[in-house]
Amino acid sequence: MPASSADLTVSLLDDARALAGDIADLRHRLHREPEIGLELPRTQEKVLAALDGLGYEVSTGVDTTSVTAVLRGTGADAGGGGDAGERPVVLLRGDMDALPVQEKTGVHYASRTEGAMHACGHDLHTSMLVGAANLLAARRDQLAGDVVLMFQPGEEGFDGAGVMLREGVLDAAGRRPAAAYGLHVMSSMAAGGTVMSRPGAVMSSSDGLFVTVHGAGGHGSAPFAAKDPVTVAAEMVMALQSMVTRQFDVFDPVVVTVGMLQAGTKRNVIPETARLEATIRSFSPEAKARLKASVPRLLESIAAAHGLAATVDYCEEYPLTVNDGAESAFARRAVDELLGAGRYRELANPLAGSEDFSRVLAEVPGAFLFLSAVPDGTDHAEAAYNHSPYALFDDAVLPEGTALYARLALERLAATRP
Ligand SMILES: [Zn+2]
Which of 137, 180, 275, 415 could form a disulfide with 54, with the two C-beta atoms 3.0–4.6 Å apart? Predict the structure, then answer.
């Protein structure tokens, strides 16, 4: 690494701390006015205003209110006279959307929008990435390549990353990124300021299951004259759990949760149909492929065994989030050097949540890191989890997250100097 690495770290953290008030102010304004889904016009407005004048090439999405900002680094290639077309690109991602949760934190900057809350901390991601935009713009002459900032709507179940990929975020700088990094704050799990990740699978894949059992309605006293979809649906719910334990490797876990089960109108009427919906999580491509084959076969066969039919829609949602081994090690070193040894904790297992940043990491090597934002003095084991109406994310992590984003880009571009 360049000899200036240590100085760079000090100045990055100092500069991020100097910006802490502005970053927190943006975070509070985003938090007060949360927006859900792919259309976040007020959020987009705030990000565009914050990037104005920093020297980025800024573009916005068509099918979603995304913001893509490209900074052209002017730092010299160590090799000299290199082809500008070969200069590396690094992508940093911050998601921007909120959740349909009624906030109960009582913080002074609490949501003023009924039924919407930044309960997953994406307001911190957005403001830290804006902070990093400032730090990087001030170091343009040290950037040995270009940086793409991906401000993404619709992470919470709307596949905003998929939309941005279709709209060309990976080609925003004219060349594919050499690496991509994302941060996610946590309101529990570890003491505030802890950075957590792991090489390989870091978050689960998620699929959706939508089933309709087609029976024939009738009188509750005469089931032999009807085709009861209720008993068949009940058998399906239990059989899915048996399938998990009998058909899947215990060391490659699968989670199936039937979260919705609906049938009937009255106790003595056999309904025409029954419906169930499930979320399915897995941690390897093999398990995902097997689920996609096993689940429809199992459910259709159960219906057929009872002389009924079932429509089974197995929908692949977010892929497995996989950290590249080398990028994960690089990010870990960046955390150690920036924040000091002991701040990084390697996760023993992936988290069972899912992320659409997985779509970026499927195309570009990179790493996804968790940053605990548990307030000082709060027991992280007792703290409300992300998505809770009580989830608290402390402003104290904003400068460090900001500096970490910037550090990853600066250092990674320096590392790929020819
Ligand atoms: Zn989230």
Answer: 137
